[in-house]
Amino acid sequence: MYTLLYNIGEIVQISISKEPFKTQSLMRDLHILNNGAIVIKDSEIFDIGFNDEIQTKYANTVFSYKFDVKGNSVVPGLVDAHTHPVFAGDRVHEFAMKLDGKTYMDIHKAGGGIMYSVNCVKNANESTLYESLNQRLNKFLKSGTTLVECKSGYGIDTENEIKMMKVIKRAQDHMKISIVSTYLPAHTIPPGMTENEMANLICDEEIPIVKKMIEQGEINPEQIDVFCEKNIYELESTERILRAGKSIGLEGNFHGEELNCLNSCVMGGNLGVRSISHLEYTSDEDIAAMRDSKVCAVLLPSTQYILHLPIPPVRKMIDEGVIVALGSDFNPNAWCYDMKFIMNLACVNYRMNMPEALVAATLNAAASIGRSHLYGSIEIGKKADLLVLNCANWEHIIYEICDSPISLIFKHGELVH
Ligand code: NIG
Ligand code: FE
Questions:
Q1: Which residues surround the ion ligand 2 when the cut-off is CB under 5 Å?
Q2: Which atom of ligand 1 is nearest to the CA of 259?
Q3: What DSSP string runs through 406-417?
Q4: What is the ipTM of this complex?
Q5: pLDDT digits (tens, 9 = 90+) for 213-252
Q6: Residue 410's domain spans which residues?
Q7: How far is the CA of 384 from the centre of ligand 1 (A)?
Q8: Cα–Cα distance between 173 and 168 in angstroms, integer?
């Protein structure tokens, strides 16, 4: 089945190299084709070229659908590199506490925060969790995100972690949005346990069970995550858990340098993890380690904004050649799934420019979850995940806050919105 998008003002291809951009100049140098057309065959991008040339070349092709884009622009489907969208309940009461001056760690130490959501997840069954995940991910897709990373992490014990990963697998099997599943066994330490006891339990008992469940096709995680933080999982246990995950084939993708500087990127770089998220307290040594080991730096500007954290050294990361990606970090602490707003925050608060933000929310985000060979740019052979905007200048997707210039969304070549 062939589909044609024609009369496109700007096709923001991002890259034509299939490699994530690594430097500032490359990040600023978006590949844009003016006056173009895109041919889709089934779920993939089959051809891209100037409008006239494509119309002539495909004059005899029978197209099932033709879309006159009328001089407006087309960008790749957005990619969200970091989310926690499986949970029950909400934490609006904690939002009020934060506005009253409580910090994330104050709430955590008082038994709230992640532990509050853990208790809600324990009391929710798989179908309730799936229903709310389904509704949320439909909103992600409608806002322009076509590929998303989803973490477990509110299970804490084996039974509930597996329940969460089953829910994510169900969404992978039934929903249009593409999902990369991440196993997050080490998100907090439940009352009555120590960091060491949890690490032992995860490495010696839980991971072997997870391995079996993966082999049986019941769950489908590709990555392992740890909340590496002072007084939670510190460097040694983080490394142990990441190594245990690696031994069953899971790529490292962890939370680091969010509330304190632990130099976890040096450890992550040595271990060869895929990506590290948050990074508000990243040191120069950490930046060098991420650059040298090609670890993706995943920035989460909504969480930084909500928690009044310091601005991460983003300009330095980009200047040094670190692969910078963006994620929404959608979770009960940071209720934002809209990558358009995340790009706006990255531009205004982190001083990224618009091309950098778009690269970080497409190709680099795809690279951070191991999908840049299929998603994140408009190139022949990649999946046809495309957003048609209602404007000639693509920058409106970042500029318009609380509004959406997206008029059509194609997912794997199919019009879904
Ligand atoms: O990425 N920092 C650790 N984990 C999550 C928060 C999860 C929660 O508070 O429920 C994050 O921000
Ligand atoms: Fe997170």
A1: 329
A2: 2
A3: EEEEEETTEE--
A4: 0.98
A5: 999 999 999 999 999 999 999 999 999 999 999 999 999 9
A6: 2-76+376-415
A7: 32
A8: 9
